[in-house]
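Task 17 of the worksheet. Students: predict the tertiary structure of the chain below and write it out as structure tokens. Keep your answer in the requested format; marks are given for formatting as well as content.
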Amino acid sequence: MRFSIERLLIVVLLLVAAVYAVDYISVQYRATAKKSGDPYDVVTYPHLLEIPQKGNRVEYALDALSPMVSQPCVHSLFPHGGYTPCWYVNRKAQSATPMFLVPTLRVAQRFLRMKIG
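Model answer:
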């Protein structure tokens, strides 16, 4: 039997499609069932900012404008119906939002003058 990359690729794609279909059917079944086990949920977590400081240090601060973030999600392996999977939202909630210092136009002009002249 000859090994073929095309056959392997087709088998992998069919396997991923089958797993997605089972996941989708599971979400639809749980959404229409009359029991508890609703696949949709809302995750609320604090919005932390990661602020760079001098000397390669980082300061963490709670966002003053929106201290808590609520994001709807679906309990599944893949995204369905425009909702992100809850496992991904929970993972994202554990990391802070990196802040970048963007130089203003005036600082950039001063920097360019020092380089040119």
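Marker's comment: The longest strand covers residues 40-46. The first helix runs from residue 5 to 32.
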